[in-house]
Amino acid sequence: MSALPELAAWRAAAARHDGLFAALDPGACIGLIAREAPATMLLWEVGDAGIEVRDAPFPGFAASGADIVLAANAQALGEICSAVDAQLFVVLRAGIRSGAVVCYVLRRRCDLEAKGFEELLDALGFAFMGACR
Fold it and tell me: Which residues, 6+ apart, have CB-to-CB distance to 111 below 8 Å?
């Protein structure tokens, strides 16, 4: 079982990509779990003072409180841990495209757009199509 990144590394990764998080409204939340053993989730959560990082028990997708949950397999978690100091979103995007990282979008598109997720979702490789306005 691969471990989630350390809190300090996950916080520093968010700081390096602060432009992607700047548009997010307070309360926006992105979780990362180990797909094979999802007991704990690592969270990026937007607070009044910026991005807060914490870990928490993973109660399931619906009860997680996250807007998006990234579920990574063991190999992808290793790659994510190695990339937190560099090209994290390149690795996340590649993992999503290959299926090694499953991105669970737990809110409707219009709700995510209202919270400012458009740029971050684009960085992960998502381009929404269709009407939700």
Answer: 67
Tell me the pLDDT tens digit for each residue of 6-33.
999 998 888 888 888 888 999 999 999 9
Query: Look-up: residue for tokens 């300090």?
Result: 8
Domain that residue 105 falls in: 7-123
How far apart are alpha carbons 41 and 19 in whole angstroms? Answer: 23
Model pLDDT for residues 81-133, shown as the tens digit of each residue: 988 888 888 999 999 999 999 999 999 988 998 999 988 888 888 865 445 54
Whether residue 30 is contained in a domain is answered as: yes
Are the beta carbons of 112 and 105 closer than 8 angstroms?
yes
